[in-house]
Amino acid sequence: MSRRDALGSMACVAAGDIVINRRLAAYNEPDYLALLDRLRDSDCRFANLETTIRAETGYPAAETGGTCCAADPYVFGELKWAGFNLLARANNHALDFGIGGLDEAGRLLDELGIVHAGAGRDLAHARMPAYLDTGAGRVALVAATATFPTSSRAGRAREDCTGRPGVAYVRQTSVHLLDAASFASLRAISELLGFEEYKLRCADEFHLKSTETAADRLEFLQTEFMVGDPPGTRSGIHSTDAKEVWRSIAGARRQADLVVFSFHAHQQGSNRETPAEAFPPFLRACVDAGASMVVCHGPHVLRGIEVYRGAPIFHGLGNFVFQNETFEVLPDEMYERHRIVGGMPADVYDRRTNGGASGAPSNPSFWESALVRCAWEHHRLIQIEIHPVTLGFRHGRTVRGRPLLARGETAERILDAMSRLSRPWGTTIQVADGIGRVALP
User: Fold this and answer.
1) Residue 6's pLDDT band (boundaries 50, 70, 90)?
2) Which tens digits make up the pLDDT trace of 265-302?
3) Which of 235, 253, 280 is the last residue of a domain?
4) 20 and 105 share a domain?
5) Pair (221, 305) in one structural domain
6) Cα 290 to Cα 286: distance, rounded to the nearest angstrom
7) What is the pLDDT of residues 363-391, one digit of tens each?
8) Residue 305 lies in a domain
């Protein structure tokens, strides 16, 4: 019998975003422990780590895109206690405490024996697969993000220059279509403000290719516009970035029994429940390259499930831990953004949500999510289970954000939502005993 045949079955659990800054091991509610039991009952336990370490060698970033997610080092030990052994780090918060926080986070995860991918000392290392060896087989993780501050991008090393620490990224290309009259007005504004003259002067002085390549195209405030009908946004994926991701996945496929591709993206389609139009074809190509499972995160809400060529694509699993209102320190820029002089972190959290009346605290979709469990037999997908999760919507700041297994009406609502969101992807979900199960061919 070959080694591949001897592997038999393998199971992997996947969760969404983890924004954590507090203890997990301090609680013992039955539905909390029941959820952790379901998490731990698999060979591979994966999530997106959207928190970095507040390291002594690091400094808070000027641009964080929201909350500065930097916590004390002990929180990584809490994730190990919960059961996670595979984490993605390619996201827009990986450098919230600078390169020092990035490096310290990687060191601590290594010490804990938690396998991680998506960030590194240069672009090659950030794109590298990471490998988890289990008794059931070897799992590879490749991770990338389409949402990132420019300063977080890992840089490629050269023979004559070191690379730059950061995250593995996939750039999105976008062009906004306008009708002829609106386009003409925008060009007139650009000329009035002196932008067109400035672009031509820079192109001449620095021997750059002019951005004016056609009469129906215009680059305005670093955004591309063109004449088109109907008006809207046409998006794509940067071809070089996509090819490098596919190359990493293909290499991992030859080195592992199961390949997980993690993709972080805030961008959306017509609404928050649908991905940007360019992403689904890119993700299917990741399966073509060798991914056994694709897990998307970033919008912090549930999206549908697609099964493509025998591989699940989870377009969004929501939040698994969402403690974004209890970070103990915040950089000065966050106080400035909310026009707070002096003050404490609680003042920032209150101001930006109007005391909890708006933003995430007022939206139940941020606090209802799912834990999914996939099982393979001899590398054939045989099961996808959906376990509904509640994070305590309408509870206070000190309570909400920690996951419990959802029961009763809450579980029904979450599973009904997953069924509705998955139907456009051709996926049917059957519900029984508080668990959703994807109907597989």
Assistant:
1) very low
2) 999 988 999 999 999 999 999 999 999 999 999 999 99
3) 235
4) yes
5) no
6) 7
7) 999 999 999 999 999 999 999 999 999 99
8) yes
- CA 412 vs. chain centroid, Å, equals 26
Cα separation, 405 vs 371, whole angstroms: 9
- Shared domain for 116 and 178, answered yes or no, is no
Residue 207 pLDDT:
65
The four Cα atoms 322, 323, 325, 326 give a dihedral, to 10 degrees, of 180
Residue partners of 381: CB distance under 8 A and separation at least 6: 292, 307, 310, 311, 312, 374, 375, 440
Parent domain of 65: 7-128+135-140+261-266+297-438
* Angle, CA of 35, 39 and 40, to the nearest 5°: 120
Region of poorest pLDDT, from 3-12, 26-35, 129-138, 406-415: 3-12
Asked which of 189, 220, 235 is the last residue of a domain, the reply is: 235
- Over the chain, what is the mean pLDDT? 93
Mean pLDDT, rounded, for 134-163: 96
Kind and range of the H or E element at 293?
strand 293-297
Here the tokens at position 221 are: 């405030």
This prediction has a pTM of 0.93
| Cα→Cα distances 376→61, 85, 338, 342, Å | 42, 19, 49, 55
Q: How many domains does the chain have?
A: 2
Reading phi first (left if > 0) and then psi (alpha if -120 to 50, else beta), residue 359 is in: left
Q: Cis before residue 230, ω within 30 degrees of 0? A: yes
The closest of 407, 367, 402 to 387, measured between CA atoms, is: 407
Residue 13: its H or E element = strand 9-19
- Is 310 in the same domain as 419? yes
The tokens for 152 are: 């977080």
Of 289, 292, 313, the residue nearest 424 (C-alpha): 313
Who contacts 101 (Cβ-Cβ below 8 Å, separation ≥6)? 52, 53, 54, 55, 58, 70, 95
Same domain membership, residue 434 and residue 332: yes
Beta carbons of 403 and 33 less than 8 angstroms apart:
no
On whether residue 394 sits in a domain, the answer given is yes
Same domain, 385 and 314: yes
410 and 341 fall within a common domain: yes
293 strand-pairing partners: 260
For 169-218, the pLDDT digits (tens) are 999 988 999 999 999 999 999 999 998 888 888 877 776 655 445 688 89
250, 255, 259, 262 alpha-carbon torsion, rounded to 10°: -70
Residue 159 falls inside a structural domain: no
Q: Is residue 248 part of a domain?
A: no
Q: Are residues 432 and 365 in the same domain?
A: yes
